[in-house]
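Hi support team,

I submitted a single chain yesterday and got back a structure, but I'm not sure I'm reading the token output correctly. Could someone confirm the output below corresponds to the sequence I sent? I've pasted both exactly as they appear in my results page.

Thanks,
R.
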Amino acid sequence: QVQVVESGGGLVQAGGSLRLSCTASKMPFNGYHMSWFRETPGKEREAVSCIHWSGQPTYIADSVKGRFILSRDSAKNRVYLQMNNLKPEDTAMYYCAAGYEYCTTTGVSWGQGTQVTVSS
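Hi R., thanks for writing in. Yes, this is the structure output for that exact sequence:
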């Protein structure tokens, strides 16, 4: 059973930074793509950033480009989402996904989510 656990969310003022972590266990890390999605009430879950198991390609949403950075530590089976210059519109529940499907909401395992709240 694949297990995905996120951490690092919280409350921050606009312009601040947070780093989210996602650890995947009980799965073959190589061959598994890792992604971050976010969701707000009334909206569909959207992809924020995704990384192919090989390291390339990496997807970053236009709305966060230049502010968010996705990185991967294969030795720890972990990915990080460094979020800088946060804006109130970044407020959402952030979910990590792992699986053989790249940057998609289907066919992947999800973590429980971590809340990010950005105050103006």
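A quick pointer for reading it: The CA atoms of residues 97 and 110 lie 5 Å apart. Let us know if anything else looks off.

Best,
Support desk
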